[in-house]
Amino acid sequence: MRILLVEDDTLVADGLKQGLERGGYTVDRVDSAEAADEALKYDAFDAAIVDLGLPGEDGIQFIGRMRKRGEPLPILILTARDTLDACVSGLDAGADDYLAKPFRLPEVLARLRVMIRRSHSRTASRLTAGPLILELGSRSAVLAGTPLELPGREWAILEALVMASPNVVNKDKLVQSLGGWQADLTPNAIEVYVSRLRQKLATAGLTIRTVRGIGYRLDEPERTV
Ligand code: CA
What's the CATH number of domain 2-119, 3.40.50.2300, 3.40.50.300, 3.90.550.10, 3.40.50.1000? Predict the structure, then answer.
């Protein structure tokens, strides 16, 4: 999952970026609404974290504009504790949730999980696909009753597939979601991760189908009646 972090305070931004990356997210940071606009024009994200006090256009105006043009990206706003009125304005402008500074990282991670789940019309923190169970909170997977070892990127791809199922996950979006601006992730690398996942899932009858020219779809085993 890829997060766009819009925060002008370098210290806060660096700490948050590190924490989110440890939590398994890909994070790209910009320091103004203008830069965020550029990023959104060219790249796909799964959620945005927006500081309200930004140089130039402030966070509330920025969010208002995003929503006006129909941008559905889940947005978490950050603000100083003594400006709770600003949080209300931010929510009214179209943000999904807010956190007051200083915040604790586990809370940021939990709120992100909820927002991203909701944006995929999922309400539970446990995702299932046939014999596969993904616990989003602990980032652990169980396949047919046995814990499944999944390195970070395999987990991220499988999470995206299960989250989207029965829909197709776009391959370009997957590359962006996993790589961000700094990583040199290629479509070929995605294919390698997908083929490893296929091997791990095959025993339980789960298939990752290639949808030519678009991406991948997770197919559950046929149910026998
Ligand atoms: Ca700020």
Answer: 3.40.50.2300
Q: What is the pLDDT of residues 20-36, one digit of tens each?
A: 999 989 999 999 999 99
**Distance from the CA of 55 to the center of ligand 1, in angstroms?**
7
126-219 architecture in CATH?
A: Orthogonal Bundle (1.10)
Query: Model-level pTM greater than 0.85?
Result: no
d(CA 156, CA 177) in angstroms, rounded, equals 9
pLDDT in tens, 76-99: 999 876 677 888 888 999 999 999
How many A from CA of 81 to the centre of ligand 1?
13
User: Which residues, at least 6 apart from 184, have a Cβ–Cβ distance to it below 8 Å?
Assistant: none
Helix-helix angle 105-119:10-22, to 10 degrees: 70
Q: What distance in angstroms lies between residue 51's CA and the mean position of ligand 1's atoms?
A: 6
